[in-house]
Specification:
This protein has a single domain, classed as TIM Barrel (Alpha-Beta Barrel). Helices cover 42% and strands 14% of the residues. The chain is α/β, with parallel strands linked by helices. Helix 5 (125-141) crosses helix 6 (159-167). It has a 5-stranded parallel β-sheet with strand order 4-3-2-8-7. A two-stranded antiparallel sheet has the order 1-9. The chain has helices at residues 9-35, 69-78, 90-95, 97-105, 125-141, 159-167, 187-193, 214-227, 235-240, and strands spanning 47-51, 57-62, 85-88, 109-112, 149-150, 171-172, 177-178, 202-206, 245-248.
Length: 250
């Protein structure tokens, strides 16, 4: 006895769609596992860039306020500084598109400082991903493209942050010298805190409104760095032009 199975064309399409979806999902999971490797992986664990091999990089974090960023940008221009890196919080960038545009037009590099000022080491993986992606969207709306570097908003992070950042194509950048400018210890003291800077150092400064003395300290800082024969570059230029040194994260 012959049995004939008549397959409804609509049912066949549904089955095909399910199979295609399953295949695509499996492919995505496979690719995610491939890119889930830390950016600077070693046998001892992932690492974050904190200094380079040569030159020197001034970096400025901005998370809030609109009074200090402008004077700092103006001072950099006055001192004929062509290369500096600004790590901007996505929420700040959304509120101050004019300042973001000024940083961009001045030729300075822009990096991501997350979206909100939150401690990544205290967050679940999903929350870290959401914060980074929210910042990514914010900068996309401001037509800031090609950002490749990211700094943890509070400076605190762990191995999970490195893995997540790398998955989205970012290199996590820390610093080797902290100016402590946000404590407002005095112009001379801020410059003194950077006195030991040498080639390859990444210097942490701030352009949020809490940094009330940074703009006035810049001429002293820049004069000292140039007096040592150090060339001011962006973080990305430093990474591209030599071997980046990194710190182990556990």
């Amino acid at each position: 006895m012959n049995f004939f199975y008549v397959v409804n064309s609509k049912l066949l399409k549904q089955i095909s769609l399910v199979l295609i979806t399953a295949f695509f999902t499996a492919w995505l999971l496979y690719m995610e596992n491939l890119v889930n490797l830390p950016a600077f992986s070693t046998s001892n664990g992932p690492k974050a860039v904190y200094r380079g091999e040569k030159d020197i990089a001034l970096t400025f974090n901005i998370g809030w306020g609109d009074e200090k960023a402008g004077p700092i940008i103006a001072e950099l221009k006055k001192e004929n500084v062509k290369s500096a890196t600004f790590f901007l919080a996505g929420s700040w960038a959304e509120r101050h598109p004019d300042l973001v545009e000024e940083i961009k037009k001045s030729g300075f590099e822009i990096g991501i400082l997350g979206y909100n000022y939150v401690d990544y080491s205290d967050l679940e993986d999903l929350e870290i991903r959401k914060d980074i992606l929210k910042a990514q969207v914010a900068f996309g709306k401001l037509n800031i493209k090609g950002i490749k570097i990211l700094r943890a908003p509070t400076g605190h992070f762990d191995e999970r942050t490195l893995k997540i950042a790398e998955r989205y194509g970012y290199t996590v950048v820390h610093w080797s010298i902290d100016s402590q400018d946000w404590t407002n210890p005095g112009i001379e003291r801020i410059a003194e805190n950077i006195k030991d800077a040498k080639k390859g150092d990444i210097i942490l400064l701030h352009a949020s409104d809490s940094a009330k003395q940074t703009a006035k300290a810049l001429p002293l800082i820049i004069e000292d760095l140039r007096g040592k024969g150090l060339k001011l570059v962006t973080v990305s230029e430093m990474i591209a032009n030599g071997n980046a040194q990194s710190s182990e994260i556990k």
